[in-house]
Each structure stands twice: as structure tokens, then as C-alpha cells.
Amino acid sequence: MALQHSFFGQKFGLSENDLERYLGEALSAGGDYADLYFEYLATSSLSIDESIVKSATQGVSLGVGVRVIHGERTGYAYSDDLSAERILKAARTAAHIASGPGASGRIGLKEGPKRDLYTTPALDASGGLALRVQLIRQADQAARAYDPRVFQVQASYAESLRHMLVATSEGNLTFDEQPMARMGVSVLARTGGGDPQRGYSGGGGRVGINFFLTEKTPEYFALEAARQAVVQLDAAPAPAGEMTVVLGPGWPGILLHEAVGHGLEADFNRKGVSAFSNRVGQKVASELCTVVDDGAIRDRRGSINVDDEGNPARQNVLIENGILRGYLQDRLSSRILNAAPTGNGRREGYQHIPMPRMTNTFMLAGQSDPEEIIRSVPKGLYCVNFGGGQVDITSGNFVFSASESYLIEDGRLGRPVRGATLIGNGPEALKYVSMVGNDLKLDEGIGICGKEGQSVPVGVGIPTIRIDRLTVGGTE
Amino acid sequence: MSLNLEELAAEIVSRARRRGADGVECLIGEGEEFSASVRMREVESLKNAGSRSAGLRVLVGKRAGSAYTSDLTAEGLDTMIGSALELAAITSDDPFAGLPEPEELGQLSGDLQLWSGDVGSTGTTRKIELSRAAEEAALSFDPRIQNSEGASCDSYQGRHVFANSLGFVGSYRTSTCSLSVVPIARQGETMERDYWYSLARGFGGLDDPAAVGRKAALRALRRLGSRKVSTCKVPVIFDPQVARSLVQNIFEAVNGEAVYRKSSFLAGRLGERVGSELLTVIDDSTLPGLFGTSPFDDEGVASRRTVVLEGGVLKSYLLNCYTARKLGLKTTGSATRGITGNSSVGHGNFYLQAGTHSPESIVKQVKNGYYVTELMGFGVNAVTGDYSRGASGIWIENGELAYPVSEVTVSGNLKQMLMDLEAVGGDLEFRGATASPTLLIREMTVSGH
Q1: Distances (CA, A) of B343 to B19, B100, B166, B335
Q2: Cβ separation of B92 and A52 shorter than 8 Å?
Q3: What per-residue confidence (pLDDT) applies to A114?
Q4: HSE-up (13 A, CA, CB side) for residue B245
């Protein structure tokens, strides 16, 4: 696709000459490198609460970010107005990070290789708003019908389409049109006048409305949310202290995101501030553990054709049979560390500087039968659903909060227990993984990762695993 | 420019009315941000830019629709109005939807000291100097501090404009600036990081950069050599920084949205004793210069002071007009929203009222317990009150801070924790829109070995 046929060429008349001029202005004070990130983001969302469609919102945000790198320094400015005058002003502001003679000469932008990981048409408005209203009504009805103890249901549906263009002073020109859709259902249940309990389920990805009609229906998410809330009604207080923990497949992969993923982001490692700094080649997990980050899986929430610096996403091996293999790079870090780009330079939007970020992070499947893993535990905890997590990348301490867990007694699942936070240390925790299941599952597509004030969509995944020692923060 | 944005908001309201909306609310925000960061004594990044956007909510009968745009051209605004009206045709009649009653509209007069001219006039060089000075103070504080995640000087100034179809038009300017440092302390193979910061409405209000750097260094150093403890039930002290998060948990439980959905452990308990006599919590959006202050809320209702908890008794929820109607109560002027959408409930300066004890004397009361300086993760359930979070801090032995403890959790239930509030410090300081002094909770489970 030539620039003149691209979204920004068509809608804003953006030409190669314009891009050359803006990049030239960005390097006018002698920076080593400059890039432009054009973004046009259209979003819409609907929600139902108390069986009333209370809210519906649509909107558009657009802008361009100009970055100049000089040595290890970054200058950044942006404009939400795509007029030449305003973009040139932003370019001059960013240029000031350097102070020297400007570069001259034409860059000669060339479009990078294309691929398409997103099955859905970029703009699938089929069925219109009425169909989307129907979906959240179906979710509301299904959750209420699940059990008479369900008394509150909220459901939401959101979709977005991000048009982006990256042009770099090294001549790379890249476009992408990134779809995203997500449904979420939150349910409260209670028995008589007792304490209510909450259940939540949701999912989606780089998909359109069709995904929710054919693959994962509103009923699928509604019943799962209602099931979780009802299960919690019988939950006993959670145990406290160190114990054997079995994680179920899928979303519990948030363990990997917190315990190792963030600590392997290259910015922290080039600065020597991560608990994993200078540990490539060392053993950081049991030999049963191979962990990858893969931004190139079709239709997943964390997937991207190209990252926000124009590099193609790919699979990167982080830990191979327990040995630390590599870091997640953005352009700045890969330059300083003299490493290849890994396609992990991401940003929340045009107002933000790219950083190394995860995409879809998961552990490869092992050999064990999941049932056999549970049977192997005399006394422990089986955790199948989680809320969020957090990590201190310097000490390596991380937490993630279980929202649905069961006691394991003599190899059998026992009572559900109430929510509890699990805590461990990143470079140590995975050394205690003693069994890895053959049931790798990726999550449903709800992950949002926050770092230094920027949010990006991510995925996680894991097979059933047994961790011999982890601290569980219950009360008993 | 300011006058123009107010006029523009009023114009958007009247255009939406002409196109068929019965009720209209319009919000316009504009802002300019600046950031200068320094790492290991070198400039790491400079960022400077401004942006504007507009949001609109319309009511057609009792149906609401919302839209936003960062394209403030006539065409962009027309599209926004069309989108909001289109959406109002597909939402449901909500008998409680509406604008405030006309007599509820209003705004505080006088200078609330939310904007300081020095935020715009302070130059880049000065901002870099502040970051450098703060980081230098941390790096040169102790030989165990040889690395840093850097120091950052950030500033923001902006304008917030709101208009509705009942004739309310208001706007106010705000500014903030901050200076923060994140040093890394090392001892053998282990590293610990911590941070400190100063936040003010203007550069004149910032703390001395060297003091900010030294405090950050001290906080990182005191974490070195940390150990885990055996699982036990002990008294727990929350330092003011982490006590703020407890106050935030209380806000989530008195938030009218959680209350009408019965997804709060404080729903239905108005007038009841829910905490210790020492527990008094105030929401006050009228305090000049503070970070939760504004002349009016995001529905055009005047800001005010609300006593939320007094001597442990639940006195008021925080409400916008919608949640107030749902509960048969009056708005507390607590409406907030992003650039668009139905309003939700927020807080002003939401704080736990200071007691009389010095933090040192509270530590002295504890024979064997945990002084928590950091909390991690999201393990708080506002529906049930279940509380379980990762923690770091210092173990207390015989009334003295003895040694650092990390990689443990503290857990309990908020219902019991509020009743178990045993001492409140006199060290209340506003370092953001929520604030708390040092707090002592009689007993919580610390989970470790």
C-alpha cells in the first residue's frame, strides 16, 4: 500500500514529502535518529447495569508524536492537530534534545514487509449498534438465569480501531490498522441477607463483532462470571503461609508476566536496576520451564503486526529449560545493548514515548497430566482465577491476587477459599516448579499492562503447573 | 482563549439542543505537559506538548448518549454531536437519568489557588537543574547508592471547562509540578529501590530538591538486608504513604455507585457504627491550593465539605446526582468523569482526620509488630472487605524499629480493620488528593514462611 492510498494519505493528504520534511525538522539540531508516530483511534463502548442500557459512548482521538534520540537522550513532543505548522513545531521542540549541526539529505522512505495477523475486517460495523446492544442484553439475561442468587449484573462491550503510521529517519515506513474488541461481565450473588460475592469474566482480542457471535458468545462469559460469584458464596477463609500451589491453565499465566516478564524488559536491564540484570545464561527457573513472549499469534489481544516503532512482532524466548536467554527490546535499548530489535517497542498512544513491553507471555506445555498434578499434592492450594498483579523489578518481589482457589487435601480438590494475594521473588519462584502440564491455554483476552503510566493490551498463558513453595496471603 | 473555550462549550450545548437533545452536558479540557528526566547525572529525556479535547453527553428523554473528540474543528464537533444523539437512540430509558436540579448548580467564588504562574514561566534549564540536584543528593548520600532509575521534574497546566443545558458555564485553571527520585541501594547481590517526591501547585511550593533526594536514599537504604518472617498475627502500623491506600479503600466503599449496587461492605449502614472512635474521615473539595480542590464538580454542582465518618459512625456516602436519586439522598457534589460519559463518583481532598500521637510514640506502643512502608497488588475486595496485599516494611521489637521485612503479605478484612484502628498519628500531610496520618491496626495476619 503506497502512502497516498493509506488511511493518513487519504484522510489527511499526508505525503512522503511531508514526512521527509517533518523528520528533517526533527533532526535539525543534530539528533542521531527521529521517528514519527501518527495515530487515529476510534472507540465505541456500551454497558448495561440493572438490565438498563445506561451508557453508550463513541469517540475519536488523533495526533502525532515526534521523537528524537541523541546518544541515550530522548526528546519528545506531540500534536493533536495534524496541520504541517503544528507538526513542524512539535518536531522543533523534540529536536532540542540535541545541539549541533542538522542532518541534510533525503531519507528515502521505504515501506517494510507487510503481514496480517488480524482475521477480522479492519472496520466491521456489521449489525450496527443494535446488534451490540443485543449482545450485552443477552449477557445480562444469561447471568440472571444462571442462579436465583444472582442479583446484580453489569455487562459491557467495547471495540476500537487504531490506524497507525510510523516513519523513521532510517527510512522505515510502516502502517497498521489494529482492531480490538472486548466483552466483560461482572456479577454479584448472595444467599438471603448474607454477604454478596463478585464474579467476573471477559474476553476478546484483535477481533470484531463476529467473534462474539460465533466463538465466544455473551452467554459464555455471563455463565462463567455467575459461576464464579456463586462458588465464592461457599468460600472459607484462605490459608496463610508457605505451601504448595497448583496454578490452573490460562489466566494464571499472570504469574509469568509479573515474576519474570517485567524484569526482562531491556530498559531496566541496560540500567542495571532489574533483579534479572546481567543474568543471561544463568538458571532462573526449573528446567521444566520455557517461557516465551510472542506478539505474532493470530487475533490475540497482545498481538501486533508491527510494534509502535515499526519493527515486526515475533516470538522471543525469554527462558529456555530454566536458563535465562534474553530481554525484550525497544529501539533505544537494543541500540545501547547492541542487540537485535525484538518487536516489543510499544506505547499507549501518540502522547507517549515507546518502551519495551510484553505482548503475549506464556510458558510452553510440559508432559504432565493436569489431574495427576493435583493428585500429587498432599496439602496445598489450587488457584484458577486471578485479579491483577504487581512487581518490584529491583528486589524481584511480585504479587498476584487469586480470586478463585480451592484447598487440595490428599490429592483431591476441597472447599473453595476466599481471595488471597500470592507473593514470591521473580528469580527464585520458578525454581520450585516441579510439574508442568500438557494443557497450555492462553487467557481469554482481558489483560491490561501498566508501566510508568502507560497502558497497553497484553495476553498471558500457562499450562497447569505445580509450584512446591509459594507464600499465600490468607488469614488462617 | 479561556473565554473562547467557555463560549465554545456553550455553543456545543446549544447546537446539541437544536438537534434534538433535551439535556446536554459538555466538557472541554486543554492542557500542556512538560517532563525533564535525568539519570546518572545525564539528561535522559525531555517531553513537552499540549492537547485539547471535548466531550458531550446528551439526554433524549431519559436516554443518554455520549461522545468525545480531539478534533475541535466545526466538522469534528458536528460528528461528535451526531454520535451522541445516535447513541441516545439505542440506550434504555433510565428513570434516574438527568441533570442536577437547577438549585443544585453553583460554584465556589474566590481564588482557590489551583494555578500558579511559575509553572508556565519556569524554563527547561531550571527543571533539569532540579532533577539533577535531587538525584545527586540521593547518589552522594551513601556509598551503597551507586545506581538510580533517575529523577524527573514534571509539570502540567490546564483548563477545565463545563457547560450544561440548564445554563451552567464554568471553567477553572489548574497547575501541578512534581519532583521525584528513584535511587537503587545495593548490598552484596541484593538491590532495593525506593522513591520520594514533592508535589505542589507551583514551583515555589516544591520541597528542596536535596531533601527529596536524601529522603529517597534513606527509604531505599532502610530496605537493605530484608528478611521474611514466620506467619503470625500481630499489630500492624501503616506509615502515612501506605495509610493513604487504606483511605482510598474507604472511599471505594462509600462511593455511591458501589452503595446502590450493594457492592460495598458499607452499603446500607448509614448512621451505624462501622469503625473505631478514632475513625473520622472527611471529604473536602474547598481547601485552597490542595490537590482535590475544585470550584464545582463535573455536573456543575458547587464543591463542599462532607463528613463521611465521624467517631466511627458512617455519616454520609459520596454521591453524584444519579447515585443520590437512586438512594433517595442529595448529591454531595462528587460527580467526576473523564472527557465524557455518564458521571461517576469521585472525591475531593479525602482524608482521615489527624490524631494526637507522634508516629514514634505509636511505634513505642507495639511490642512485636510490623511497620508497613509499601503495599503491593490489588488484593482488596470492596464487596466483602477481604484484604490481602503484598508488603514491605520494618519489624518492630519492643517498641523499636528493628530490621526490614519483605516478601510477606498482610491480610484481614476491612470491616474488622476499621473497628481495630487503635491509634492515629498527628502527622497528617496532603501529598495528593487522599491523605492519612500514621495508623495502628490492632491485629492482622502477616503471611511469610
Answers
A1: 22, 12, 17, 6
A2: yes
A3: 83
A4: 18
HSE, CB side, 13 Å, CA atoms: give it for residue B150.
19
Cα(A291)–Cα(A285) distance, rounded to whole angstroms?
10
* Closest residue to B67, CB basis, from A49, A59, A151: A59
Collapsing DSSP to helix, strand or coil, B364 comes out as: helix
Distance CA B100, CA A467 (A): 55
Mutation site, A41, A403, A475, A476, interface B, largest B CB count within 10 A: A475
- Read off the pLDDT of residues A234-249 as tens digits, 9 standing for 90 and up: 999 999 999 999 999 9
The shortest CB-CB distance from A401 to any of B262, B340, B388 is to B388
Residues facing residue B424 across a β-bridge: B439
Q: Cα separation of A197 and A188, whole Å?
A: 6
Closest CA to A466 of A282, A288, A254: A288
Question: Could B193 and A63 be called an inter-chain contact, meaning their C-beta atoms sit closer than 8 Å?
Answer: no
- Is residue B312 within 8 A of residue B279, CB to CB? The reply is yes
- CB contacts < 8 Å between A and B, how many? 255
- CB of B383 less than 8 A from some CB of A: yes
Q: How far is CA A362 from CA A254, A299, A450, in A?
A: 9, 16, 18
- Stretch B269-290: mean pLDDT: 98
Instruction: Kindly tell me if the per-residue pLDDT of B5 is higher than 50.
Output: yes
Identify residue B300 by its one-letter amino acid code: G
- Residues written for chain A: 476
Distance to chain A for B382, nearest Cα, Å: 10
Residue A104, pLDDT > 80, answer no
User: How does pLDDT run across A170-185, given as a tens digit for each residue?
Assistant: 999 999 999 999 999 9
Domains identified in chain A and CATH numbers: 3-44+56-111 (no CATH), 128-163+176-232 (3.30.2290.10), 240-473 (no CATH)
Q: How far apart are CA A268 and CA A259, in angstroms?
A: 14
Residue-range domains of chain B with CATH: 2-221 (3.30.2290.10), 228-449 (no CATH)
Per the prediction, chain A carries an average pLDDT of 96
Q: How large is the ipTM?
A: 0.95
Which has the closest alpha carbon to B346: B291, B280, B295, B297? B297
Contacts of B129 (CB under 8 A, 6+ apart): none
Distance, CA of B326 to CA of A98 (rounded, Å): 57
Instruction: Name residues whose C-beta falls within 8 Å of residue A89's C-beta, 6 or more positions apart in sequence.
Output: A77, A79
Q: pTM for the complete prediction? A: 0.96
Q: In a mutagenesis test of the B interface, which of A273, A405, A422 is the best target, namely the one with the most B β-carbons within 10 Å?
A: A273
